[in-house]
Design brief:
With about 350 residues, this protein is α+β, with helices and mostly antiparallel strands. It contains 15 helices and seven strands.
Length: about 350
Amino acid sequence: MQTLTAKSFGQRVLTWYAQHGRKQLPWQQPATPYRVWLSEIMLQQTQVNTVIPYFNRFIARFPDLHNLAQATIDEVLHLWTGLGYYARARNLHKTAKIIATQFHGEFPADRHALEQLPGIGRSTAAAICALAFGLPEAILDGNVKRVLARVHAIAGWPGETKVQQQLWQLSERYVPQQQPGPYTQAMMDLGAMICTRTKPACNECPLTDYCLAKQQNNTQAYPGKRQRKQLPVKQTTMLLLTDDQHRVLLEKRPPAGIWGGLWILPECDDPNNIITWCALKYHCDTTFIKAWPSLRHTFSHFHLDITPIQLQIINKSPVVMDSASLIWYNNNAPAELGLAKPIITLLQQLAKQLEES
């Protein structure tokens, strides 16, 4: 087992990156602060291959920070639809406005200043500094955690404070003063391409001579896994309220919380008296069509079982027409709105049913 020094660690990682690392990702061409920031927010809890088409659509629509800052939240959420963790999109929009107004449209080249902005934590701020500004800041995303935990056989779940502190110390130790940008990208690539969660390609890893997990022949033990708890199950009834033009009633969620700012189907508080509930809330008469099979949507901390009920509205309600939080949604000419994933599924099913009827 070779002696591991910060210099030898960095040299091996950079040599590997020069030959095998990813250098043609969309946000690298060019790696401006705006593009790096956008990619880093999208990459939180999301894989590169999933992010690329979303990133390309965002850049086509909002080529710079000022375009994004001037957009409506509906425009932003519409382009984010399907990517999940929508708080990221809301914070993205907030941060764009703050940088446009308080920083004259320029990202601060300072990790601590970046950390004060919505949605930007320590690792994301450091990634922006390293990749966009060439500053020697240490990151600790999921890929880097896995590499460092295996090389040093750091036991325990990285979300635990003690384990996370150990990993931060190691990350700070190894980040080089020279070429911090390529090194940072190399560490992310190493975790994504070689030191993968399952079946890591240890024979192709530049750190294999140093790796304690490899020496133990026990890479799957690192990093430690979080003890999984059984997720609670919640229930809701959603209404597919259609008018005589086959448009569907959608309601906008409050800005914060689950599906914050997104448009969803109305949730009925009284599923045993739906007709009466609609009359009281929307001042409209409805006819029951049918109940659909339940649909399960899983969040990080609970399952949501959705029971869709299809209804036909007999008379249009002035309450609906005059409300800013209610719209008639046309599946054949959809408006640019942020829609929750299960709502997209239900709208697609409804459109198919109406076509066949």
